[in-house]
Amino acid sequence: MRNAHPSVSGCWPSPATTPRVRRARREVLDRHISVLDLLEDNQSCSLPFNIYLEFLPPLKPRYYSISSSPLVDPLQCSVTVGVLDAPARSGHGRYQGVCSTYLSVQGEGATIEGFIKNPSTQFRLPSDSTTPLIMVGTGTGLAPYRGFLEQRAQLQKSGQTLGPALLFFGCRNPEQDYLYEDELRDFEDGGVGSVVCAFSRIDNQPRMYVQDAIKAHADEAWALLEAGAIIYVCGDASRMAPDVRKAFASLYQDKRGADEAGADAWLSELVTQQRYVADVWPSN
Question: What is the pTM of this model?
């Protein structure tokens, strides 16, 4: 798998502005060409195997959110994984996710090694089931919310009162990556939570992202916040998370007539109160 090979960036010289260096960065670094790619393309060059091994970085652990509730089955849990498999930017073969590809080829009943790690943030349901919730996620960022909704459904069955919950879910096309569509509809029909979808790749329709959906449902979201709602954000840290934060800042400015500094202070206070909780990661 190409992304398991060492890149040349780790041994790259300090930044320079010469045309040769700029060209090298454009044609090598920006295309994610690995040391192995360079050796295969330039077979007159050789590299001792032990030196090549020294270039190999240690594999980072892959973390996946549990996407089920122990109230449904205390002996079984699920994870939601997007398999990364696409043409490599370098032009050499395909770029495959290390863990996602491994998991995708395991057969039913296979045994894998893993570990359970407590979340570093308070990304869990509140102990009071009546607390309002606003959940924002894209792609596999839906994973923890499926667990949340399963948990709320079981609490509802046991006779507990549920506070309102609003899920903003974003994906490209409902025909391709609308994860757990049937389950989400059942949760909504059962009064477990409301679902607002934002689709960004539907032909002949303007692109809609979760931040746009928040703006379109500003009154509903603000009513929940006024009632003490907790905001959860899960997914891409590079673009989605900052855009969602801006959407809530704009919501506060519109509803309270505050300036940008006032909105930032409000959001910071929500974070301190653990009413704005994020579980995000950089996109590939």
Answer: 0.84
